[in-house]
Specification:
This protein has one domain. It is built from two helices and no strands. The chain is mainly alpha-helical.
């Protein structure tokens, strides 16, 4: 029987690479969210003076950043688990 896998016991270089991948996926998600918000704003012909414009940007950027990072995290975790066995 194998010992339970603890992701916090990974080697330091694995943790650094994993952190970099998750942070970069969150940044890429924020950029994608920014462009999605821009497309919606331009498609709907919203006024630049509309007070909701910054809210639209923030919500789309946050949603894409969290969504992409949450989707990438299990993939990285599974890759690390398979590589360690």
């Amino acid at each position: 029987m194998s010992a339970p896998l603890n992701p916090l016991e990974w080697k330091r270089d694995h943790l650094i690479i994993t952190s970099i991948l998750i942070i970069s996926s969150a940044l890429i998600g924020a950029i994608i969210g920014h462009y999605w918000a821009w497309n919606i704003i331009s498609r709907e012909h919203l006024s630049p003076m509309d007070p909701y414009i910054p809210i639209i940007y923030r919500k789309f950027m946050a949603a894409w950043a969290v969504g992409l990072a949450a989707a990438i995290t299990p993939v990285i975790y599974l890759y690390q688990v398979m590589r360690s066995r």
